[in-house]
Structure of Carrier domain-containing protein:
Amino acid sequence: MSLAESDDGGQLRKLEKYGLAIQLGLNGSQMDASASLDPRMIEPELVYKLLYRLGYLIQQLDSAKSEAELADVEMIPPLELSLIQEWNSVLPPVSERRIHDVIKDNMLARPTAPAVCAWDGEMTYRELETLSTSVAHRLIDAGLGPEKIVPLCFEKSKWTVVAMLSVLKAGGAFILLDASLPAARMQTICRKVDAEMCITSVSCKSRLSPFVRRTIVLCDETVEYSASNSQVDLLHSVGPRNAAYIIFTSGSTGEPKGCVIEHQSYCSAASGHGKILGMSSDTRALQFGSYNFAGAIMETLMTLMYGGCVCIPSDEDRTTALAEAIGKLGANWAFLTSTVLALIHPEDVPTLRTICVGGEPIRNSQIKQWAPKVQLRQTYGSAETAAVVASAGLVTSSAVSSVGKPTTARCWLTHPADVNRLVPIGAPGEVVFEGPTIGREYIGNPEKTAQAFISAPAWREALGAPAPSSRFYRTGDIAVYRSDGSLELQGRKDTQVKIRGQRVELGEIEHQARLASSGVREVAVDISVVDGSRPTLICFLVITSDVDSKIKDTIQVVRTRLDSILPHYMVPSLFLPLPAFPHTISGKLDRKRLRELGSTMATQELQRSREVAGKQLTQPSTEIERQLQEIWSKVLKMEKGSIGVETSFFQLGGDSLTAMKVVAETRNSGMRLTMADIFRSDTIAGLAREQSLRAGSTPGQPRSEVLDESSSISVLDSIDLKDIDLQRNDVEAIYPLTGVQDLLVTTTKNTGILADYFVLDLDPEFDIAKLENGCKKAFQDFPVLRACWLRIGGKYWQVVLHQIDQPFRVVEASGNIAEFCQSFCLADMQSLLPTQPTATWFLLRHENEGMKLVLRMSHAQYDAFSMPLIFESVFDAYNGRESPRQPNFPTYLSRISRLRSRSIEYWSQALKGSRLTQIVPHIAPSIGAVESAPSFIASQAEAHVPSRPRKITPATLVRAAWAILLSALTSLKDITFGQVIAGRNADIPQIEKIVGCCLNIVPGRVNLSSFATVADLLSGNQEELLKMGDADSLDSRDILKCCTDWASEEAFDSILHHRDVDTEPQVQTSKGASNIKTLAIPLVPPFLFIVSVSKGTTMGLEVIGNTHLLAQETAQTLVDKLAYITEKLSANPDMTISSLIDEVGSVV
């Protein structure tokens, strides 16, 4: 046999245009084989092996019996088999350690070395060890132990690291959950692992707590609570073979699969590959990966196991200023997808020394860009193999498909259709890993476990018995051996793909799409290259109807369901209808042809969108608009002239990735835009307005209604301050009341119920002097607490005093302290004068039953967002922490007054042609049934909403349900009622930290005739709420007076209020978490009040009113109907509105 890379004559010369040509010839009793090849296309060494294998096969065929079957022919020559064995002869040593023990070694060796450097704080190894041990004791006390699983839900934070390590120390296993996951996905995962408790941050608590029995919140105070236990040994029986964590991946049956990784597997993997990846005690690893991604665990645990420092940017910096975050944190090691790597440039990140690329193939241009600058490695592994199994060091000439040699597992290539047959060197085969680093199982899924985690194949015994610690895992990846034993990936044998750096099972998306609508006849999901470069996830649909409107409706229903069920990276970017799917001759779906159709159709669809957007373009008129147009042109690769200021970014082909690029470019230009800005205001004109507002350059500011000092004095001159025991120099400022404040103050003055009381239980050892100091400081920090409500010139004003008498009083309690507290508050309310400041603190002290800290306030001084902040400020001062300066309520009043003109424009347009929908005439009891004085009534019900469309909030769901109920009751289609909103959309930094009553009551208009289906109704309502923006703060009195032609005496007779914050919020004291309880006498409302509260998979509903408005049984009927409609809306996106109204039928 001979091999020629070039040939001067003969038959081979005629074939030299081919990458490989083989010539066979008989020479007596032997056969000669010659080959010509292009070394740029195929390695010479592989051709030598191919010729050798050809000769071996010819010999076998020549000596075989005539009745022998081809399947029995051995394809791999002994010499080649020996070489494969040699490549797989070495396994990393099996570690018998636990992850947290390895990390503790670094604490003992270098206790003061940095372990965590995060945007929200830093920790040394000693501090991390102390804090995590403290939390671990709490977890053990709560019942955590081996094989018990704890979901973790955090934003990017140092506390994620503490939580992971704490669970491991307590003997349990953790699951990292990204806070952006849909609630349905979180619920499924919690159900699959039988989770009893979870650990979250304060802000993520509501995302996960509905699905478990117990929630543990981590922050400074929580951890300090158990600090005394930090030096006590943890006693549990967890061993190396116990579960350490579970990582969930996409599943073909419609539900995710959770792979169990043990301590032994992870420690073996880390010791086998960490140094190759550049890990050491000098490593400062960027924790960039989403918590849905196995890489996030490697970035954290492997770094700590090597004594390095985990560097954690904020969520905002991670998506909008990545290069700056890397520099700020001093990160020198990063694990990134090639998509993310494209967002940064070597000159912008001089601190980076090592970049590992994984999750998707690196691009050739990136190798040339980065290989000369850093240690660049392409990695290969999976969630089931404890992260990385193989990696290749890349130089400028490296192939993009090379992933190097396996180091933490043996790698066998088997026939794609038969795992019991190995394939020869150079032939494509399914990757099967063997070794101690492989996961245990898919939890609760024995069928999928048996398919993937297999017993030793037949050929393995023939090569020698595997080690007892070895497991086998079928990856589904197709690869070939290169001549040196390294791997070259070639694709998948199934429908699993990598998109946006994540592993996605196309079957799971297809399954959920089929369930979305009966109008879907066929569905297929695949990846096509769109616009010449971008891999795009596309959902192809064959829809039963050929009517355009029905096709669009069905696509919207499918999109809505996928948004609500799947993580965002699994939701297709495009939905394309086809009359029929292409098929192969054998009748199978022709996915290759489908991808080609997708590429063509998607590019055409994108071009059509751009052409439509390009008609009658308005060009920039300001410098900011011109800068934004330049940036869009650069990022979207479009001519500037084809981008108008009113053109939608997403209509031009923008997506979340290109939005990140836009934000990064705007930062370089000195602007302050965020991803949320682009999704909210997706035009250049809209973004320019956002930027102008931030820069304080909005022209023509309307006058402020917040009074200056001279105006305050003139108002005060109109009353006799002596009558209310005030001096002029007692007054700091005077402000008008918002509409809601005025309603609350007027109602409380008329009823005599002037205040609410908030109670916090405290241990007796609290230092009373420090408590008093903290309470008084809260009055200094929040001016609204020093307000009293005075009627001046025919209306109420809030008069803020410099200080108030007795802001803190200690009261000795007797008897049962809970009963004493209740009777004390009732008696105090009766003695409260209408003109005196409402807010004050009481400390009820009992000799044997501890203490209760009580805050008395008017509802006009707080809302659900701000009330916990007051208590938090007390304990910040108690613990000696300096509270950051926050915007105050007067700032809020001043800001919303400047928005008045623009807000009036919005509401005038939104309410044009509207009429208030009056419900009371249809439900009021007869005159003879009405009592002389109205009495309070309330009725409750629960709606079961196991899932709802993604991006559709509970408030939108109930808003739509109430509109349908009103329509069924009144036979009207254009419905308008009152709705309570937070009033916190104004562009004020840290507006969520303002203490005061920002609530507002605005009209909720729902024109049901504008919507065909439930999906339309919900998305339309959600869009309308988003459009409202900071117009939500316009005073309700101004809306009725300036934006409608309603009669002056008209008022809302039904008001909807969705509460999405805790009714008993937690506050962290120096002794741990405690709930704030409310003592309040319910006011008898002059209107119908509908309240909804989210409770995980249920929605609590309540109808509140008085006996002059409706009877008790009518209230119960209303709330039951509302629950029924809410359930219908959440479960039937393709149901028509008209049929739902008909189904509701007669209400009373």
Summary: The longest helix spans residues 591-614. Residues 1-10, 225-232, 696-714 have pLDDT under 50 and may be disordered. The chain is about 35% helix and 25% strand. The two ends are 94 Å apart (CA to CA).
